[in-house]
Design brief:
This protein is of the alpha+beta class. The protein has three helices and eight strands. Strand 3 and strand 4 form a beta hairpin.
Amino acid sequence: MAALRLRSSWLRAAKPFRRGSRLNSNVRRRKPTMPPLRLVVVDPQGHDAMVLLREAAEEASALYPELHDPALPGPTNTPTPPGGVYLVAYSGSSPLACGAIRPLEHKIAEVRRMFVTASARRRGVARLVLRELEVRALEFGYESLRLETGNRQLPAIALYEACGFIRIPPFGTYASDPTSVCFEKVLVHANSDA
């Protein structure tokens, strides 16, 4: 298994406590620090990937209850196809986030399974996973990435826009889904003149 150790800006300390403040209850508390993140290529059908997928599915069911059918079996991941990768971000031994790419069309890959546990949100974890997926996509020779998210997942939409993804019309199986919001990003090779 390939691992990549990352330190991110979310480890920065909050503003220090000022002695003598009359409003002690309004003092910002530091988020607990976590060990450096490791991004690991995993089997999408392995234990940690499936735990994260189930948690993502539960959250999606809460956001889109009208689309959830409890009679259907739970979600599953397919094996990683050639030209694809499935990453899990770990803090220590705890899986915090996942993301994957799979081939979509010639020179185009799709970002899939982007998810960060609630306890690790707003700390740059999703941005790190997405950036690593972009690097892997370039290594595979892809020229652009597409992705889909739901119209009620506003933090995800904000992340993708902040990372340079541009909204596009829904593609593929998402074309008939009124809740789908789709994005694309043209990847820039480090040695290009662009």
